[in-house]
Amino acid sequence: MQTVLIVDDDASVLVSLGLVLKQAGYGTRTAKSPTDAMAVLKKERIDLVLQDMNFSRQTTGNEGMALLQEIKTTFPAIPVILITSWGSISLAVSGMQAGASDFITKPWTNEQIVQSVRTALKLASVDVPLKAFSREELDKQYDFSGVVGRDPKLLQLLQIIGRVSATDASVLITGESGTGKEVIADAIHRNSLRKNRPLVKVNLGSIPSTLFESELFGHVKGAFTDARADRKGRFEEAHTGTIFLDEIGDLDFSCQVKLLRVLQERTFEVVGSNKSRNVDVRVVSATNKNLMDMIAREEFREDLYYRLNLISVHLPALRERREDIPLLARHFLQMAAKTYRRDNMELSENALRWLQSRTFPGNIRELKHTIERAVIMSPGQVLQADDFNLANAIQPGTPSKDNLPEVGTMSLEDIEKAMILKAITHHAGNISKVAESLGMSRFALYRRLEKFGIRV
Ligand SMILES: Nc1ncnc2c1ncn2[C@@H]1O[C@H](COP(=O)(O)OP(=O)(O)OP(=O)(O)O)[C@@H](O)[C@H]1O
């Protein structure tokens, strides 16, 4: 049985917390002061400390901080959960910086206490040094289908994900756009105990702040002019499952505090009703912004940051894992070939070299689109570096208002060839249709095919 040491100078708190934890299956010890707490820790095997921040009459939290620091120095492996009052969030933040595993604000609910203790103990049990596992070994233990790659950085990240998925710890996923943050969020849910429950994805960047509460917490009919019927919020939809908060760095300050409340108290109010609802969700969030910088500029709340990232993982940019480009490229080629009904497509050596030499600012998403475009536009079965050059040069969104490639990047002949290739793919090699769509005779088309060395 795991044992929790509860430290508080209020005897009634010791009794009530002791009861809650006993009912949840934990052994408990109690201490009324930091001195008593250290004495117990030195004598007995304690698996977790749950401590208040204020003792005697002091309300500064200094005594609590000193105790936390002493525990972390003497027993670094023992997780510590702090109990703070709602108003002293900055204290909780300092505590997290000093190594606390989590913080609970007063007044707490029993579920909150038990969930926090359970998560911290589980995390402590998986906090063993990472080994260099191969992809095959990881696949035997976890379900990482849909996550292509075997770069050591990715494997290490998958190992962490595998271990923490089964806990209810909040996970913050960072990384540039297109590096696969959503793919990792899916993997966390799929490997968690909540896998058969809902996974609700919310793109916070696309929700105007005026609609934030109604979108996340729902509303009752008549709550505001457009509320013609009751509507469930995203948190309610995610109840007992996982909520994925994408683009968390795009949330404005006023919404951040509303989000903090629900994450902290695990309750929310539906807009237009005054009843609180309890919610049991695992929170996974993602951003391509640097939240630490945003905190320094006072654009992101530090207390929310610590709520979101009991665990944080950073996805490497594709240019930092070039070894994975061939694997990913073949994976996307297969997908595109299936979608566009192009059997037995392959990538030539020079195409792979070309792809590996790119910087891909748009990361894996850009690689995927690059392959897709080449499949659409190239008539041959084996994709060559040239096919990518052409496909890339006339991609939509090339920085030019008229959607034409930048001047100097393509000659008129290049464009002519690319357009012919595109039309051939579009009409599945039907020469009459190709000629017609390009506004030329079949004869004129054949002459150009010969000139450009295109075989149909
Ligand atoms: N490891 C991977 N294996 C296979 N496909 C991947 C992998 N990582 C990403 N992808 C694919 O790349 C595309 C972009 O991935 P995803 O949407 O997860 O990125 P993101 O980091 O969440 O992007 P954004 O920051 O723009 O939201 C998706 O089509 C996804 O399926």
UniProtKB/TrEMBL annotation:
Residue(s) carrying 4-aspartylphosphate: 52
Alphabetical keyword list: ATP-binding, DNA-binding, Nucleotide-binding, Phosphoprotein, Transcription, Transcription regulation
One Pfam family this sequence matches: HTH_8
Biological-process GO terms, alphabetical: phosphorelay signal transduction system; regulation of DNA-templated transcription
Domain of life: Bacteria
Database matches in InterPro entries: AAA+_ATPase (IPR003593), AAA_lid_NorR (IPR058031), CheY-like_superfamily (IPR011006), Homeodomain-like_sf (IPR009057), HTH_Fis (IPR002197), P-loop_NTPase (IPR027417), Sig_transdc_resp-reg_receiver (IPR001789), Sigma_54_int (IPR002078)
Transmembrane parts of this sequence: none
Positions of the Sigma-54 factor interaction domain: 147-376
Keyword Coiled coil applies: no
Keyword Transcription annotated: yes
UniProt-listed SMART domains: AAA (SM00382), REC (SM00448)
Span of domain Response regulatory: 3-121
GO molecular function terms attached to this record: ATP binding; sequence-specific DNA binding
SUPFAM superfamilies, A to Z: CheY-like, Homeodomain-like, P-loop containing nucleoside triphosphate hydrolases
PANTHER family hit by this protein: C4-DICARBOXYLATE TRANSPORT TRANSCRIPTIONAL REGULATORY PROTEIN DCTD, TRANSCRIPTIONAL REGULATORY PROTEIN
Protein name as it appears in the record: Sigma-54-dependent Fis family transcriptional regulator
Source species: Rhodocytophaga rosea
